[in-house]
Amino acid sequence: MKLIVRCVSALLIAGLARAVFAEQSGGIMKSFRVEADLAPSADPDSERWKAVPGVYAERDPFGKPLPEARTEVRSIWTGQNLYFLFISRYETLYPRPNPTPEKEAWGLWDYDVVEVFIGSDLENINLYKEFEVSPDGEFIDLDVDRSQKGKEVDWKWNSGMRYKTQIDRGRKVWTCEMQIPWKSIDARTPKPGNELRLNLYRIEGGPPSRKYIAWQPVHNPSYHTPERFGRLLLADGLR
């Protein structure tokens, strides 16, 4: 009996250790190489996207499950651009009044939005870029340096990203595809095996019941907690 108890205890401890290690080391998302650049379509059923496996943002920043707001994110890359496709289930939409897709929207994070936080410097984790797009096609891109107190964010920075969104109100799903030029996020030549720091987020709904959705929980009210980011791994094409 004592042997059984010891074995069960050992298994529980090992399981807890694996869970802690997985959270501390961060998740891994793969981005798969494709040959050609195409204009964003935001269509998960297209030939380009339908076979690409993704990851899921389905917890709040502290790790609480949010199954009703489950968000799938897929990624592909070429020699010129990195792509992300968000497939977001929603209960309500909370758009910014009088949207202006033709220019950057400061404060977009106060409304419905999907977000990519990504950095190529694996040592200096305070340096990264932020990309946000709303269901109505508004956007903002930011150059972040958290070590610059009082000037952490350069909102005048321009990444040259392209994007497209679609809303399926019948199914209550909205999709967003981002096309981000490599030159705006990484000085290295993109190749299989390259890694970048990454977290993926979404915000849904208006106050007081807004949902804050994360791929990697940061255990902090602020999404800007880079020590909790995961990794993006560039992979070869799908086999």
Can you characterise this structure?
The chain is mainly beta and 239 residues long. It has one domain: Immunoglobulin-like (Sandwich). It is built from 1 helix and 13 strands. It has one helix at residues 2-25; strands at 28-33, 54-57, 71-77, 81-89, 113-119, 127-133, 139-145, 153-154, 162-168, 173-181, 195-204, 211-214, 230-235. Strands 1, 2, 3, 4, 5, 6, 7, 8, 9, 10, 11, 12 and 13 form a 13-stranded mixed sheet that branches. A hairpin with a 7-residue loop joins β7 and β8 (153-154). The protein is globular, with a radius of gyration of 19 Å.
Described by strand count, sense and barrel closure, the largest sheet is: 13 strands, mixed
As an assembly, this protein is single chain
Tell me, what's the shape? Answer: globular
Rounded to the nearest angstrom, the distance between the terminal CA atoms is: 49 Å
Low-confidence stretches: 1-26
- CATH-scheme architecture: Sandwich
For the record, the CATH class is Mainly Beta
| Global Rg | 19 Å
Secondary structure: helix percent: 10-25%
> What order do the helices and strands follow?
HEEEEEEEEEEEEE
Query: What proportion strand?
Result: 35-45%
The secondary structure category is mainly beta
> What value does the average pLDDT take?
89
Number of helices: 1
Number of strands: 13
Number of domains: 1
